[in-house]
Design brief:
The complex is a heterodimer of chains A (314) and B (299). In chain A, helix 1 (2-29) packs antiparallel against helix 12 (279-307), helix 5 crosses helix 12 and helix 10 (223-260) packs antiparallel against helix 12. By secondary structure, chain A is an all-alpha fold. Helices cover 79% and strands 0% of the residues of chain A. Chain A has helices at residues 2-29, 34-39, 45-54, 61-73, 87-122, 127-141, 144-158, 174-208, 211-218, 223-260, 266-275, 279-307, 309-313. The radius of gyration of chain A is 24 Å and the shape is globular. Chain A is built from 13 helices and no strands. Chain A folds into two domains: 20-73, no CATH class; 93-312, MetI-like fold (Orthogonal Bundle), CATH 1.10.3720.10. Helix content of chain B is 70%, strand content 0%. The two termini of chain B are 33 Å apart. The chains are: A mainly alpha (314), B mainly alpha (299). Chains A and B meet through helix 1, helix 6, helix 7, helix 10 and helix 11 of A and helix 5, helix 6, helix 9 and helix 11 of B.
Amino acid sequence: MLSFILRRLIIAIPTIILISIFVFALQKLLPGDPVLAMAGEERDPATIEYLREKYRLNDPIPIQYLTWVGNALRGDLGISLRTNQPVLELIGQKLPVTIQLAAMAMIFALAIGIPAGIVSAIRKGTIVDYVANVVALSGLSIPNFWLGIMLILLVSVKWQLLPASGYVPFDEDPLRSIQVMIMPAFVLGTALAATLMRHTRSAMLSVLTSDYVRTARAKGLSERRVILKHAFRNALTPIVTLSALLFGELIAGAVLTEQIFTVPGFGKLIVDAVFNRDYAVVQGIVLVTAVGFIAMNLLADIAYVLLNPRLRKQ
Amino acid sequence: MPQVATPSTVDAESANDPVLNRKPENRVWKKFRAHRSAMLGGILVTFFVAVALLAPVLPIPDPTATDWAAVRQAPSAAHPFGTDEIGRDVLSRMIWGAQASLLAGVISVLIAVLLGVPLGIAAGYFGGWTDAVISRCTEALLAAPFLILAIALAAFLGPSLSNAMIAIGISATPLFVRLTRGQVLSVAAEDYVDSARAIGLPTRKILARYILPNILPPILVQATLTIATAIIAEASLSFLGLGQQPPAPSWGSMLNTAKNFLNQAPWMALWPGIAIFLVVLGFNLLGDGLRDALDPREQ
């Protein structure tokens, strides 16, 4: 098991190096000279030269890259041009907000997606299955930012039940925090629920026709026990590997959801950074999400082995 | 691009087989037509394509013409979908917005296919170092969530519809590299490719005549489904202000403005969302239907 984890960690290294090259290369895509923008209206040659030296833009590009990576490895992702805060600190501040949003969204997604997937697999070909599929496909086709706007229109503007925007830290007032976050979490969760439902359904369908499910039925076990204990537990394995994919969807979905509900999280940070031309923050976020994604993949792989007794023995 | 052979040349031998004596095109079309949801998808897509193409000749007001006497008017006979915050006709902007959305969906997927498929073929067919380099780069790009990558690219390239298409296209490329590579690996192991190699056919001909036609169906399915994703991505980027720039109409940017007038003009938020939903649903249904129709195992 340990050697498996080590092997997977080693495979991840070249991927991370390549990502860092991409992220570094992003800044070279910028049209024009970033120093000219920083130097302000006067474009004083001395200031420009000072800035060039300060940001080491006179070095050859490979040296610039190595300096950048060296700093990143020490946790220095640069300074936000906007707030003058270290990028990593900024990300650290916003991350808990997004984690709360993502966790609540995941609860919605699991609570809707998994039962719906199981039921539609058991009732394959019936009207229940048909309706579940139509709803899931619609969930995948609705842009979630529009769903958010429509919910604000109904729940906040028309019925005035929940606030349309804002954020209350969880440790300050847990109840209020959940209340404010429930709408964004629902919007983010529905898109994931659709993906989860489709995967649960197909995993259940392939398991339900297997020999051991037939054996379990032949033994006279109750249908409930057959489904939950024998079928679902085995269907869970492919669903777990999905979690890495869901992580990507969660982060991308959070960008839009946070924008609509003005939730001050990670996603809002990247959008604001884009508009403030705060490129160090944009780069930092891409790097951090990509590394997070690789970590999630690694965890999913490990969970896959742990859940699958046949692989565990090897 | 190598020349594309038609599937009928590949299945030439099956023409003499009494059991399979049906052209594959006919079989696919028959299955597709019997697939009700796929037909619905086809109809939705055709409708929006027709609307987008006919935009210049339809008797509708200029989508950018403002009318300060008709600001935020509810739907009426003169403006069936209402007017927006500066008195522009929402229906007309919807119709022209269809053009931006479909163009963005199709062009960005075209970019992804034109970049991804050759790279995937190279990785799958040549193996070795070529494969190692291409595969590692693909994995690295896949590690950044699709929309985050597209936002970052669009941010650094500068906001515009064409840059959004490039950003979405590049972000979707790794999907096609991975898919193509996998397909090529399985097709290249077939006996008929071995025999083509044995009789000394040049690589270029093997790729064009045997590999490419056989890997096309799954790529076509993926492309259709990716158009759906790309349309949502373009709407998302435009919603964030990174796509189509005002005053040119786009569904995403219409929603961005609409969210500021939910109280006074809810219709402004209604139509663009419904349109995105329907066109994306159309491509999703079409893609699912194509997958079922092109899958020889499914009867």
